[in-house]
Design brief:
This is Tyrosine-type recombinase/integrase. Keywords: DNA recombination, DNA-binding. It holds the Pfam family Phage_int_SAM_5. GO terms for molecular function: DNA binding. This protein has about 500 residues and is mostly helical. It folds into 3 domains: about 5-25 and about 35-70 and about 325-495, Orthogonal Bundle (hpI Integrase, Chain A); about 85-190, no CATH class; about 205-300. Helices cover about 50% and strands about 0% of the residues. It contains 21 helices and 3 strands. A hairpin with a 4-residue loop joins β1 and β2. α14 (about 345-360) runs antiparallel to α16 and α18 packs antiparallel against α19.
């Protein structure tokens, strides 16, 4: 049995202490295909010391993790802890006052100061977007946009068509314009965007059988609901809309035995057109096609279809690497200071985000972390990642101190962070946005950015060979790891300056 599939805690700890994990480390070939297809932005530091993974102890691994960042976090806050309510006051004083002069909008935002900070921030940003839109259209200064300017109905309609409001934003417009334009415009009739792209319910019997097979093979129900169902719904509705043969039946009743290779190739062309027009990314198009190809291939293997129509349907190629700007030590310090100042549960948030920063945990891995996965005495933590594979990691500072303090306050709790993992994950994403905003972060992406930061920091170190980097990143393939490695323009320039052209 592969060691990553073993869930026995006792065996895993013994494995860690004996450092047997290193015997399974693979050599990294310099001639591998992925080394020739990496973006120049991914320039890696050559390891001149030729570190042998078998000569690296877990004590050394812990030393590497402890010295990754130069973040000075005060043991006690140097500022007054105000919690989430204080965060709304901060948003009001720094983002609203002096930036919005419309008395109607100000009254609305002051009335909403008691709502959740995530909601309040969203309302503030939408209000600022509204003011900026009118400012541009009327060629005014921001502080000169008053109520009388916002009553321009034509500009309002143009704004709504340009930035379709979600439910919360629509309520803001409704309240404001009932005062500014009573009886002249019905906000309820304005275009509204969905806050999430949700796939339609899938009741197709063949696809239901395929999804049950996915569950048995270890695919998480969350992946099926969020990812796969969207692809299936898109494909079924595309067939129903574009082919006369399938228009007399509902999408969930389309006989998949009548779908041919030609249909799949035309669906591929359709996805490529969406990508070229900017309606989706090429990666998204590739993922949709892959899901549909696997659907028909698997239905053939399960006996639902008599022919595999996917054999000559190639995938959509795309560059999986996307350069990202990453936070510096100063940025990260501001982020954790924002937690100390504005979190209602700083002891929880500092552990949750600390696990992402110092160990590169994904957000769902944080949510599913259990008390029995942590051994404070051995200074180890067991992480169950994709396909329930378990990896044992050392706990660096200051995580050890934070985890110890959190465990002492929750002696009877099974899960470290929250017993309601699903709602916690959603809340943690929202809190990330808040702390990042307060810290003046301009980086794109959500909490997953911290994994990019973790892997990039490790890749910069001469004492972290590729096998160790892959182990800590919990990747099976090097090409997965290199997608997370980013170098700033300054780093690239320094590397170029070191080249000896003589």
């Amino acid at each position: 049995m592969d060691e990553n599939t073993i869930t026995s805690k006792q065996y895993i700890y013994g494995l860690f202490q004996s450092e047997h994990w290193k015997h399974l480390a693979k050599s990294i070939s310099e001639n591998a295909s992925y080394t020739k297809s990496i973006s120049q932005e991914c320039l890696n530091i050559k390891n001149n010391d030729h570190h042998d993974i078998k000569n690296i102890s877990m004590k050394k691994v812990l030393s590497v993790l402890n010295s990754m960042y130069s973040i000075k976090l005060p043991e006690s806050p140097l500022f007054h802890r105000v919690g989430s309510r204080g965060l709304n006051d901060w948003i009001w004083s720094t983002q609203i006052q002096g930036h919005i002069t419309s008395s109607t909008i100000l009254e609305y935002l002051e009335m909403k100061k008691s709502c959740k900070p995530t909601t309040y921030l969203a309302l503030t940003q939408f209000s600022l977007k509204l003011v900026q839109f009118f400012k541009t259209k009327l060629n005014l200064k921001t502080q000169d946009v008053h109520d009388e300017h916002l009553t321009n109905k034509a500009i309002l309609i143009e704004f709504v068509n340009t930035y379709p409001p979600n439910r919360i934003e629509k309520n803001l417009l409704s309240v404001i314009y009932k005062q500014l334009l009573p009886h002249e415009i019905e906000i309820e009739e304005l275009k509204t965007r969905s806050s999430k792209h949700r796939a339609l319910p899938i009741n197709h019997p063949a696809i239901q059988a395929h999804m049950e097979n996915l569950l048995r093979s270890g695919v998480k129900i969350h992946s099926i609901n969020v990812k796969y169902k969207l692809s299936y719904s898109k494909f079924l509705n595309w067939l129903h809309k574009n082919y006369v043969d399938f228009q007399h039946t509902q999408p969930d009743s389309i006989p998949l035995s009548r779908v041919t290779e030609t249909h799949l190739l035309e669906f591929k062309s359709y996805l490529l057109k969406l990508a070229s027009s900017g309606k989706c990314s090429k990666q998204t198009a590739s993922n949709h096609l892959y899901d549909i190809r696997y659907l028909f291939s698997n239905l053939y293997k399960m006996g639902w279809l008599t022919k595999d129509i996917t054999l000559n349907v190639t995938g959509i190629r795309y560059d999986p690497y996307h350069y990202r700007n990453l936070p510096t030590d100063t940025d990260l310090q501001h982020f954790f200071e924002a937690i100390e100042q504005f979190s209602d549960q700083p002891e929880v948030d500092r552990v949750a985000f600390g696990l992402m920063v110092w160990l590169g945990l994904r957000i769902h891995e944080v949510g599913y972390l259990r008390r029995k996965d942590i051994n404070i005495d051995n200074r180890t933590i067991s992480i169950f990642g994709k396909n329930e594979k378990c990896v044992l990691l050392p706990i660096p500072e200051p995580l050890l101190q934070w985890l110890t303090e959190l465990l002492e306050t929750r002696p009877n709790q099974n899960f470290i962070i929250s017993e309601n993992r699903k709602s916690f994950t959603l809340e943690l994403r929202d809190r990330y946005k808040l702390y990042a905003f307060v810290s003046d972060w301009k980086f794109t992406g959500g909490p997953h950015l911290l994994l990019h930061t973790f892997i990039s920091r490790l890749s910069e170190r001469q004492d972290c060979p590729p096998q160790m980097l892959m182990y800590l990143a919990r990747h099976d393939r090097p090409e997965n790891t290199v997608r997370y490695i980013h170098r700033s323009n300054a780093q690239l320039q320094r590397a170029i300056n070191r080249i000896d052209y003589l």
